[in-house]
Structures
1.
Amino acid sequence: MPALVLLGAQWGDEGKGKATDLLGGSVDYVVRYQGGNNAGHTVVVGDQKYALHLLPSGILSPTCVPVIGNGVVVDPSVLLSELSGLNERGVDTSKLLISGNAHIITPYNVTVDKVTERFLGKRKIGTTGRGIGPTYADKINRVGIRVQDLYDESILTQKVEASLGAKNQMLTKLYNRRAIATEQVVEELLGYAEKLAPYVADTVLVLNQALEENKVVLFEGGQGTLLDIDHGTYPFVTSSNPTAGGACTGSGVGPTKISRVIGILKAYTTRVGAGPFPTELFDEDGAALRRIGGERGVTTGRDRRCGWFDAVIARYATRVNGLTDFFLTKLDVLTGWEQIPVCVAYEIDGKRVEELPYSQTDFHHAKPIYETLPGWSEDITKAKSFADLPKNAQNYVKALEEMSGAPISAIGVGPGRDETIEINSFL
Ligand code: IMP
């Protein structure tokens, strides 16, 4: 059976939680492969709304094993409070597996995230302040702390000491902060060890064995394609690889096992944090998209920047991820506009450009070239099939599909679990 990847095709917050949940019943494992508690998924089950940050959304499906892969960065205190919050609401979390190779977000990584952002001033990235970047930096610098280190006090102490050496110099001399004591960090981390122990596993082995047994494994990307450290709008990106390749490195499952890569695509565009955004709207339309779409960050509570659909970005997402399908979300938010502009290309320094420029300078100069499509005013939230959609909504979807380079196989027409039109099955 297949391994599928679900990932954000834009700047994140496309509504992945809903898509994962839709598949939940037929999926055996849901795996997060990168990022940490910078992510935010809202999943609606019945009349209950769940905001998940670190846990895979499969945690809400009783038949599914949720997995935190080696590519994820884990803040143990956030993880434990997210688990106990779910337990209090009657959700069974006992099946969760956490890779022993996943890196730990230590308290000093969070401190470094905050002080470096402050130091960058107006050049700041607008991070979520959760310690994500500094933890991945420690991983790449080979001074990171992994989940397995919690079970060897001597190794843990040596590693924390090594990692803190340079950071304390930086904190005290550059940022005028107090030094952080090794013992204090070690004590806090050891305090999590026992509570996390039942979940820690060799997830590479588990997942590969599951695939050999024909189980369905779903990889759930956090953030989105344009926030990818390699393929996104660097430096205004997150510090991991949400793109499809990240599913392999972040889980230990080879690319030959992946049969489907589904890009979640919002019917318009949003972005949180700083960085270029060609179709961003600063007018009443932008405010209306934010209001109607409820575009406020699940993790940070920040208002999302909003703009029209950008087909250049969608085509780019198809290319860098090898997308086989799109899941178009939040189509209902566009109900009521008489005309809906869609960006089909950019004008960069007087030239028409069809594809995303690799040059940061060019992208900062990109001005959207719009085509305007007729809107619809009928309520579409009860539509069960493509044919139930008003003609203009059908045409909007068809136009997006044509411009974006992969079939739109599902459409979200409302936040609820059943407010989805399935066109082609993902399984
Ligand atoms: P970091 O991931 O906290 O380092 O933040 C880096 C950039 O990614 C900032 O612009 C954040 O706003 C953005 N970001 C991180 N996680 C998400 C997400 O789940 N959705 C949307 N933007 C995100």
2.
Amino acid sequence: MSKTVKIALDEIKTMSVEILTRTGYGEAHAQAIAEVLYKCQLDDCQSHGLFRLLMCSQTMRAGKIDGHVLPVITKSDNAILHADARGGMSLLAVNEALPKLIEKTKKHGIAALAVNNCYHFSALWPEVEELSKAGLAAMAMVPSHSWVAPAGGTRGSLGTNPLAFSWPRQNQMPFTFDFATSAFARGEIELYKRAGKSLPEGVAIDKNGKPTTDPSEALQGAMLTFGGHKGSALSIMIELLAGPLIDDLTSLESMEFAAGTGGAPYHGEIILAFDPNLFSKGRADANEARAERLFADIIDQGARLPSQRRFKARALNLERGYVEIPQALYADLQAL
Ligand code: NDP
Ligand code: PYC
């Protein structure tokens, strides 16, 4: 980051809630969104922290989202929980449903939450990290808009489709990862554009299907998946599990629904949770030791675990009491 502005930690939420309520979100949605923006900014996740206030406000300006609607969680006796966001932002529905998902997972050993009819802009790690705090392993997936070409293709069919996973660890932070199945998240490309930087090779093609490192051309052309056909297949899996499986939209359909109005994609989300106690037939402690041996072997070689950067940033920012964001972003937020 070149020129930055320091934001006190308590200002992150106050500023977010103020911008969101001025923009048209009701208090409950504003609080739920601000909480996740705070968590991401605290961990220096720049593409899904305060920067996302721009997308939230653009979503409201596009005129379709309901900023006040309350989610409905449907009761069931089986292991599947449905949360209907009813055309609002996803986070309030997720907040209300997670305690019920934990309950179901501890009863059945495995349970799933299908969130339907939601606008979605956020990082997924806060949700799976929360489930690991309750002693569960968890995965979360969402489609987005069809910005990403399948391996061997020339135009966007797939979303940036993030996949998050978290594994609980005793007396320490969980093992958590969360990444787009596109080589770069779209938010990351937008940040490169704002910073006037070129992309690395292999991230995108222009609208004529030629490789490009220009972020503006990438945004107009198509993004590429990570790992060629492997990322492409994972991305398709996410389309299916978080789309047709849960009776909701694919990234192609989300893009059609937006009809060029901009803002956050509109679709569903799936969260799966697993109880290590029930899966391991009461041998969770022995198996926890196996997982720890694996983590130790990774760290021992000088490699790092996913989320270690985030946890370090969290500790530093909590200690100093502020985060830093680019001056240009601060100016845009002030304008909102
Ligand atoms: P990154 O490439 O920044 O990071 C991906 C993950 O890999 C993180 O868990 C990160 O941990 C870990 N990691 C990075 N480098 C290493 C390393 N050298 N060794 C081990 N682990 C490493 O993620 P993306 O840019 O792809 O995604 C960023 C965010 O965007 C995600 O939170 C995702 O949910 C969100 N997103 C949301 C979308 C939506 O539709 N809602 C769509 C696409 C993305 P660490 O954080 O500690 O570096
Ligand atoms: O960064 O790809 C992205 C993204 C899409 C929706 C929210 N974030």
